[in-house]
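Workshop exercise sheet. Pairs work together: one partner reads the sequence aloud, the other fills in the structure field after running the prediction. Swap roles for the next sheet.
Pair: D.N. / O.F.
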Amino acid sequence: MLNKLFINLSLFSLVMLGQHAIALPEDSQLPINIESDRASQKALKNGEKTEYFGNVLMTQGSVKISGDHIIVHSKDSKVTSIRALGKPAQFEQQSDPNKAPIKANANRLDYQLNQDIVILSDNASIQQNDTTVSGKKIEYNIATEQVKASSGKEKSSRVKMVLIPEASDKIDHSDSNTQ
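Structure field:
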């Protein structure tokens, strides 16, 4: 039953949040800029790990990631993943110049660049236009704008979605008894 709810929520979210837009095409071609209070770098067997601490802001075109601590993994001088930790860490991206940016918050944010996926965990929420989805864990596919949300194991933990209806100009606010 939970799987069916998860699938239905995923499909509903896809319809509500996405029009199969992709991120601005130039974003991935632009340099990554990072500002922080301090940083450290370590060579690993399979690449490098660079950590940034204190009021960290990372930008790449329309992509913005911020947090208290950001960890960047790279291999062959190419960034493979970014982890942001904060209370909350934040992700923002403009997928289409004619739409509001996607904004996401969580205490932990994992961005897998090779898969174009952002995984938000612990107090996760994502918003686009007037739709907000929140839950224990949210997976956001940047390429398709598909959102998958799941609740925690606790009974009180549930996925929540807020949909704001479009305003209608056709509503008649006049009182029909007065003329």
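Discussion prompt: The two ends are 55 Å apart (CA to CA). What would you look at next?
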